[in-house]
Each structure stands twice: as structure tokens, then as C-alpha cells.
Design brief:
By secondary structure, the chain is α+β, with helices and mostly antiparallel strands. Helix content is 44%, strand content 20%. The chain has 22 helices and 25 strands. An eleven-stranded mixed beta sheet has the order 3-9-10-16-13-12-11-24-25-23-22, with helices on both faces. It has a five-stranded mixed beta sheet with strand order 18-17-19-20-21, with helices on both faces. The protein has a three-stranded antiparallel beta sheet with strand order 4-8-5. A hairpin with a 7-residue loop joins strand 6 and strand 7.
Length: 664
């Protein structure tokens, strides 16, 4: 305290220096008292409770200084009374400006140590305007207030804290989303607000996938959010699959409560004859339109895609993984033959798998769902399954062969080349913002988000280190070098951001961009410019900093980011291979999975086992150990790996190789 007092004393007004002097004397007296008292007692809590009152008593402010304290308080009160209205207005303006500045610094993640002098200045301004603002706060009056205060302090301390994965994987996931500003809860239960950084990630996925969808032959369109309830009733399996998740609109206007107690109520006179469903998916609406658009075989295949939001009412939600409302794309196609429809659904699944691997650096297992896990109304559902760091699977995209079910339900026929009327065959396929959850849980670490360069909204963040205030030549050289560096990087097709905020310390900038997962940080200062170099720091894949020639920045950055992309994909592939348990017995799987929870890090993983397709046994396993069939993997089943093997559960001849595991 004494050292700190000497440091700040010359910067303070006279009345504050008097208080600082008293604080120094109090600290010295307290120190001497403890030094005398501690050797005479034990270090137990009970002994310290006897020392503290004596130390406090021995450290009382000397009598000769009590009058100084009184004069200080009196002088401050008088100075407040002597302030003119103009001076008061000026002080109030300064207080507001300083408070706004502190809030901005907090938003930018400035450390408490750096904030301290600004807070001290704010308090001094408030004391000049109103001495009572500097007076000690009264003690809390009840325990409830103390608990509330303690909880608020805890929340503040943990506001930028990321729980380690090994401590609680589920909380780690939520912390990543919060501190990296990807999304947050909304006033509507089960729905989330996707913040700009999270939305920019979805934009990257959407841009990549939209090009693939168009190459696949589909065109973008948009269909209504509201679907007549009667439409859903036309396809029995479909309505059974979604009935419990539907949000229903029953009235078309509100009115004031006649009793005057309920505010607004649904107008009884505005009830809809056919209630409307907020779309859980759009098959029924789109097939209703297909009936109008398809007449001849020349109209086929017809492929439509829409980027939209859907609503599926959820009781237990997780950001990005399972929310009542989410964003997705849904493709819907109609074909003249079953073979054409099946090929379309498999081709689109291949596109999803390729996108996950090349853009997101997430390896997936492609396969078919078991009959009990199929999409409502589909004859076959194909899926891609990804493995998260805790050993759980995540369904990351699906493609459905619908057969003729929707064609029959909506009477969609076409005239073939022989002039006969035929029923069309259909598919649907889609991925959603769930992919962002997969991205987070596949690559991120305890320091924050980790982004593969190809999906990162910002691939390179450049942090210029300013020249000294009066070094005009250095400033000019830095600006010129910075402009050329950024131009070179952008010229190589990289997404670049320059963080030149002058109100944020460089350390805080490094911390922020590391947490947000930017793959590469480039530092450039006056000394670097003179040496013709800059400094590279990669988020993952390379330890320490690298000094790079300014002439080689673009080439080195491009090569380095490609290496990071490859590193993340290879790491994820190794994790998938290392967590794939082959030919385990049912008891071994049950023992490993029945106590496995989402919060556990580095769980037992997935189980590839011989299986006889049986919905009843599948349900029993789900009840016994919470495991589900993620898919029948395409490669091993096409290779006949199940042939000659017995089902690991029933002992009967196996019909498939099945991939079991816990899943989000």
C-alpha cells in the first residue's frame, strides 16, 4: 500500500493526498500489530479471531490526526456547497463521459487492473460533486441481500470464464457459445438469438452449400411459414411424426379483454376454420405446389430448395443442437423413377459429407437409419454422423427417399412418354444450424473457439502496434507497410480484418481474437517495419510465434492456413478412429454407456457391432443403456462385413453392421 501511495500521491488533489497519508499510516500500524500478535497465537481460525480485534485496536488512527479527518470531511462538504451551477453541470458531464468510457472498455474486455485508474477517476469526480458518494456504504441489513450480492459478484467473475472440458463438457459448450458471442437465450423459451459472430459462421456454411445445391440442379425458392393443418393430415405417418412438436395458430387477431383484467386476448370472433401450423418442415406445402407444376415427364426431375426457419416445439433445448426454432435449408425433389429419386438422395448426402470434411474439417460416417429412426413418411433415411470430443455422436445432416407417399397424398402425377399417367417419386434433404454445434464440439478447446480457416469469417486478424506519439515518420512507415500487407493478404483471397482500435490494449485484442477462434494473428509494429518483417501467431497447430518477411506474408499465410485446416481434419479423424469400438459384446457396451453423460469428457465413444434389425430389441437397448443406432454404415455394409456373424444382442444371424452410441 505504501508503495502504491507514493506512486499515485503526486497525481492526486491536496485533500485526497491527506486521506492517502492517513491510509498509509493505518496500513503501517496494522502491519506492526500483526507482526507482534501472530507469533503469540496459533494459525487456527479461532486464534486469528482473537488477533484481529487487538490488531485493529492497536492500529487506531492517532488522536492528532482525527481533527485532520474531520477538517477533510468538512472541507469537502463546503466545496460541494460552493459549486456554481455551471461547475455542477460540467462535473455531471465529465461523470457521464467517464462512465460511458468505462462501459465501453468493459465491453471490449479490458482487464480490471487497467480499469482501476479510470474507476478511481470516476469516483473522484463523483466525490467532488457529492461527498456522500465517497462515503462508506451501509452494512447489508439481511442475509437475502447478502446472498443476492454474492451471486451477482460470482456471475460477474464467471462472465468471461470457460469451464474446462474435463470438469463439465456440457457447461464448457455453453460457456464457449456465451463468451465467444455466438448466441444467447431470447425472451421466447426454447429460442435463441444468433449473434453476428455466430451468424457469420452460418453464412459461410450457407454460401458453400448453396453453390453445391445449385450444382446439384436445385433452384432456390421460398414457401409460406404457415401451413394449413389439413395439409399435415393428408400423410398419416408424417402427421404422427410431427404432431407433438407443432405450434398452432388458431386466431387471426387480438382484442382487449372485456373484463379489463387480461390485457389482450385472442378475439373469439377471429378463430380460424382451418388452424395454421408454423412449419416444422415443408413437404406438405411444397408437394401441394408440385401438383400444379408437374404435368409431363418433361417437367421432371423438379428440384427445389429453400433457406428458411422452422419451428419444432422442444422441452429441453441446447443452443444450436436443439432449439424450438432453427435455421436450415430443405431440398425437395420429384422424379419419374424410384432409381432417380434414390440416386438424388444419396448424391446429396455425399455433398453434405464432402462439405463437412472440406469446409468444417469434420469427418463423418455415412449410412442409413434403422426403420425406427427414419424420417416420418420416408421409405429410407440416409444420414451423416459426426463424433464429438466427449465421445457422443451428432446427426449432422439427413437425406430421405420418400417413395411415392407424398405423391399419393397430394395426387401428384405426370404423363410419361407413352402417354400414361404415373405417380411421381420424391426426396427431401437438409442440414441446419446444428452444424455450428458440431463445429464447436469437434475442434474447440479450453481457451475458446477453434475455427478451421475455410469456415472462419476472419482468417487473419492484423494487430498494428502503434508508433510513439511524436514519431510521425514511424507512423507513416507503419501505415504504408500495413496497407501493403493487408493488400497482399486480400489479394491471395484471404479474409482479413485490421484491429486498430486505439482504446483497447494489444493484449486484450490478442485474447479476444484467440477466444473467437481466428486462425492466424499478424502483429506489425515500427520495429518490425524497420526490419522488414512481421510476426505470425496461429490459433492451433503451431507453437509460439514466427517471424515472417513482409515480402513473403501472403504465401506464408496461405500455406500456414492450409496446414491448420489439415491439422484439424487429421486430429478429428484420429479421434473418430480411436473412439470406434469394434466387435464389443453387448455387456461391454452397456457397462460403458449406461453411466455415460453429456457432461463427461472423453467418453467411451461409438460401437460398431453385428446386428439383426429388430425394432423391439432396439427399444430395449435404448431403455437399458440409452444407446441408439446412429446408422448402418454404408461402407462396411456394402462390403458384407456382417455376413456370417451373430447379432451381439439376440444371438441371431446379423442383417447389418450397426453403429451404436450416445447422441446429442
Amino acid at each position: 500500500i505504501s508503495t502504491g501511495c507514493q506512486k499515485w500521491e503526486s497525481m492526486l488533489p491536496s485533500h485526497a493526498r491527506t486521506g492517502l497519508c492517513l491510509l498509509t499510516m493505518l496500513a503501517s500500524s496494522m502491519t506492526r500489530a500483526f507482526q507482534r500478535a501472530l507469533p503469540r497465537v496459533s494459525r487456527s481460525a479461532g486464534a486469528l479471531s482473537r488477533v484481529l480485534p487487538r490488531a485493529a485496536e492497536e492500529s487506531s488512527i492517532p488522536r492528532c490526526h482525527r481533527s485532520s479527518t474531520a477538517r477533510l470531511m468538512s472541507t469537502t462538504a463546503e466545496s460541494r456547497a460552493d459549486l456554481s451551477e455551471e461547475q455542477k453541470t460540467e462535473l455531471e458531464g465529465k461523470i457521464k463521459d467517464k462512465g460511458d468510457a468505462i462501459r465501453r472498455m468493459k465491453d471490449e474486455g479490458i482487464s480490471k487492473e487497467d480499469l482501476a485508474p479510470h474507476i478511481t477517476e470516476l469516483l473522484d469526480l463523483k466525490a467532488q460533486l457529492d461527498p456522500s458518494a465517497a462515503a462508506p456504504k451501509p452494512a447489508k441489513k439481511n442475509k437475502q441481500q447478502q446472498k443476492s450480492k454474492k451471486k451477482q459478484q460470482t456471475d460477474d467473475v464467471e462472465s468471461d470464464y470457460i469451464t474446462p472440458r474435463a470438469e463439465n463438457y456440457s457447461k464448457w459448450y455453453n460457456d464457449i457459445i456465451r463468451v465467444c458471442e455466438l448466441a444467447e437465450t431470447s425472451p421466447v423459451r426454447g429460442c435463441m438469438v444468433i449473434k453476428p459472430w455466430g451468424m457469420s459462421l452460418w453464412d459461410q456454411v450457407r454460401n458453400d452449400l448453396d453453390a453445391r445445391i445449385k450444382d446439384h440442379g436445385a433452384e432456390n425458392a421460398y414457401f409460406p411459414l404457415l401451413i394449413p393443418k389439413s395439409f399435415l393430415s393428408k400423410e398419416a405417418e408424417h402427421v404422427d411424426g410431427f404432431a407433438k412438436e407443432c405450434a398452432v395458430v388458431t386466431h387471426h387477431r387480438l382484442t382487449a379483454d372485456p373484463s379489463g383484467e387480461g390485457g389482450l386476448i385472442a378475439d373469439p370472433e377471429a378463430e380460424l376454420e382451418d388452424p395454421l401450423i408454423i412449419r416444422p418442415t415443408s413437404e406438405t406445402m411444397i408437394w401441394n405446389m408440385f401438383k400444379k407444376w408437374i404435368v409431363s415427364h418433361r417437367d421432371l426431375p423438379l428440384k427445389m430448395n429453400q433457406w428458411a426457419n422452422v419451428m419444432r416445439w422442444e422441452m429441453r433445448t441446447r443452443p444450436f443442437l436443439r432449439t424450438s426454432e432453427f435455421l436450415w435449408q430443405e431440398g425437395h425433389t420429384a422424379h419419374a423413377t424410384a432409381e432417380g429419386a434414390i440416386k438424388d438422395s444419396k448424391d446429396m448426402l455425399d455433398q453434405y459429407a464432402d462439405m463437412c470434411e472440406k469446409l468444417l474439417a469434420i469427418p463423418v460416417v455415412k449410412g442409413a437409419k434403422s426403420p425406427s429412426e427414419r424420417f416420418a413418411g420416408a421409405e429410407e433415411t440416409y444420414t451423416i454422423e459426426a463424433l464429438m470430443q466427449n465421445g457422443w455422436a451428432l446427426q449432422s445432416g439427413t437425406s430421405h427417399f420418400l417413395g411415392q407417399s407424398f405423391g399419393k397424398a397430394f395426387d401428384v402425377t405426370f404423363q410419361d412418354s407413352d402417354g400414361s399417367q404415373q405417380m411421381v417419386w420424391g426426396t427431401s434433404w437438409g442440414v441446419s444450424t446444428r452444424l455450428l454445434g458440431a463445429l464447436i464440439m469437434t475442434h474447440s478447446d479450453d481457451a475458446g473457439l477453434v475455427l478451421p480457416p475455410r469456415v472462419a469469417p476472419v482468417q487473419v486478424v492484423v494487430v498494428p502496434i502503434p508508433a510513439k506519439k511524436n514519431d510521425e515518420e514511424g507512423k507513416a512507415e507503419l501505415e504504408n507497410a500495413l496497407d501493403k500487407l493487408v493488400a497482399d493478404l486480400k489479394g491471395s483471397g484471404l479474409k482479413v480484418k485490421v484491429d486498430d482500435r486505439d482504446y483497447v490494449r494489444n493484449g486484450a485484442k490478442y485474447f479476444e481474437w484467440e477466444r473467437k477462434g481466428v486462425p492466424l494473428r499478424v502483429e506489425l509494429g515500427p520495429r518490425d517495419v524497420k526490419g522488414g518483417v512481421c510476426v505470425f501467431k496461429y490459433r492451433v497447430g503451431s507453437e509460439g510465434k514466427e517471424t515472417i518477411s513482409l515480402d513473403e506474408v501472403a504465401a506464408k499465410a496461405t500455406a500456414g492456413l492450409d496446414s491448420v485446416q489439415e491439422f484439424l481434419l487429421d486430429s478429428a479423424k484420429e479421434r473418430l478412429a480411436g473412439n470406434l469400438n469394434l466387435m464389443a459384446t453387448y455387456d461391454e457396451m452397456k457397462d460403458a454407456l449406461e453411466k455415460d453423460e453429456a457432461s463427461e469428457y472423453d467418453g467411451p465413444g461409438l460401437y460398431l457391432v453385428p446386428w439383426k434389425c429388430d425394432a423391439a430389441n432396439e427399444e430395449k437397448i435404448k431403455d437399458e443403456c440409452k444407446a441408439t443406432i446412429r446408422c448402418y454404415p454404408t461402407d462396411v455394409n456394402e462390403a458384407g462385413m456382417h455376413e456370417g456373424k451373430k447379432c451381439f444382442y439376440s444371438g441371431e444371424d446379423a442383417t447389418h453392421m450397426a453403429l451404436f452410441g450416445r447422441a446429442f
